[in-house]
C-alpha cells in the first residue's frame, strides 16, 4: 500500500533521517518505535509533505508522490495526525471533526457514526469547545478528523504522548479496532511495548536509521531492543 524508500531529511546539514525504508501493508498496524529525537516525526512529516526530504521515494498504491505537495498527498489518501494534534480551541469538538469531511454529506455522517463507535466518549464531549478538551479528548478529535476523509493510510504521530494510562488504553483500543476493520495504520510511538502488542509489523528507529523488527518471532529479544531503541 505505502512504500517509503531511502528517505532522508536534513535540517541545515544535520541528518535527522538517514535513508529510511519502510512499508505499510493495506490493512492493520505497522508501528515505528524509537526514543525522543530518533527522527520519527521528521520521517512522518516528510511523508505528509510538511517537511522537504533531501532524497528518497514515496509511493502510495502504485502512485509516486515523491514530488507531490501536502494537499495532493492528503487527497491521495495519506492522513497524518501530528504530534501537536492541532485541535482548534474556538471550534467545538464536533466542528473540529467535521473539518476533515469531504464530498457527500450522508456518507460523511455515516463515517462519523462509525468513528463514534470506535471512540464512544466523543458523544459525551462533542459540543464542548476545543480549548475545553483534555489531551485524550483532543487526540480522539484529531484522529476522528483524519478519519473523516476516509484515508488509505492513517499516520499517527505519538497518539499516547502525555496521556494518562487509562486514556492511552482508550486511544490505543480505538486504533486497534480501526485496524480490525481493515484500516492501514502507521503508528509512531515512544511507548514501544504497548505499540508492539497491537502491531502486526514493526520498525525501530535510532539516530535517523530504521530497522525492521521481527517482533512476533519467539527469538525476539525485547531487552536488546530496549537497550538500542527505547
Ligand atoms: N525543524 C527542525 N529544525 C532543526 N532540527 C530539527 C527540527 N525538527 C527536528 N529536528 C531535530 O531532528 C532530530 C529528530 O527529531 P524528530 O524527528 O522530532 O524526532 P522524534 O520525533 O523521533 O522525537 C532531533 O535531533 C531534532 O532536534
Ligand atoms: Mg516526534
Structure commentary:
The chain has 230 residues and is of the alpha/beta class. It has one domain (2-229): Rossmann fold (3-Layer(aba) Sandwich). The protein has nine helices and ten strands. The strands form two sheets. It has a six-stranded mixed beta sheet, sandwiched between helices. A hairpin with a 2-residue loop joins strand 9 and strand 10. Bound molecules: adenosine-5'-diphosphate (ADP) and magnesium ion. Magnesium ion (MG) is lined by residues 40-41, 83, 157-158.
Short description:
The chain has 230 residues and is of the alpha/beta class. Helices cover 37% and strands 27% of the residues.
Can you tag this structure with a few keywords?
ATP binding; 10 strands; 230 residues; 37% helix; 27% strand; binds magnesium ion; binds adenosine-5'-diphosphate; 4-stranded antiparallel beta sheet; alpha/beta; 9 helices; Rossmann fold; ABC_transporter-like_ATP-bd
Mean pLDDT: 94
Name the strands of the widest sheet in spatial order.
6-7-8-3-9-10
Number of helices: 9
Radius of gyration: 17 Å
Topology, element by element:
Layout: E1 2-11, E2 14-24, E3 28-33, H1 40-48, E4 55-60, E5 63-64, H2 70-76, E6 78-81, H3 93-98, H4 105-118, H5 121-125, H6 135-147, E7 153-157, H7 165-180, E8 184-189, H8 192-198, E9 201-206, E10 209-213, H9 222-229
Parallel strand pairs: 3-8, 3-9, 6-7, 7-8
Antiparallel strand pairs: 1-2, 1-4, 4-5, 9-10
Bound molecules: adenosine-5'-diphosphate and magnesium ion.
The site of magnesium ion has 5 residues, from helix 1.
Amino acid at each position: 500500500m505505502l512504500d517509503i524508500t531511502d528517505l532522508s531529511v536534513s535540517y541545515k546539514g544535520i541528518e535527522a533521517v538517514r535513508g529510511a525504508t519502510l512499508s505499510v501493508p493495506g490493512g492493520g498496524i505497522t508501528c515505528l518505535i524509537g526514543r525522543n529525537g530518533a527522527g520519527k516525526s521528521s520521517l512522518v512529516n516528510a511523508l505528509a509533505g510538511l517537511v522537504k526530504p533531501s532524497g528518497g521515494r514515496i509511493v502510495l498504491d502504485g502512485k509516486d508522490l515523491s514530488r507531490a505537495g501536502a494537499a495532493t498527498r492528503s487527497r491521495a489518501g495519506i492522513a497524518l495526525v501530528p504530534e501537536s494534534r492541532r485541535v482548534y480551541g474556538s471550534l467545538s469538538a464536533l466542528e473540529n471533526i467535521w473539518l476533515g469531511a469531504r464530498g457527500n454529506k450522508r456518507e460523511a455522517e455515516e463515517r462519523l457514526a462509525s468513528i463514534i463507535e470506535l471512540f464512544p466518549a466523543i458523544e459525551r464531549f462533542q459540543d464542548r469547545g476545543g480549548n475545553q478538551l483534555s489531551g485524550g479528548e483532543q487526540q480522539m478529535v484529531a484522529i476522528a478528523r483524519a478519519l473523516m476523509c476516509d484515508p488509505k493510510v492513517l499516520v499517527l504521530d505519538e497518539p499516547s504522548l502525555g496521556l494518562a494510562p487509562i486514556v492511552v488504553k482508550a486511544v490505543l483500543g480505538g486504533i486497534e479496532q480501526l485496524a480490525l476493520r481493515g484500516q492501514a495504520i502507521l503508528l509512531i510511538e515512544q511507548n514501544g511495548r504497548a505499540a508492539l502488542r497491537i502491531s502486526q509489523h514493526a520498525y525501530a528507529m535510532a539516530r535517523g536509521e530504521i530497522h525492521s523488527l521481527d517482533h512476533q518471532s519467539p527469538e525476539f529479544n525485547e531487552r536488546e531492543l530496549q537497550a538500542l531503541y527505547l
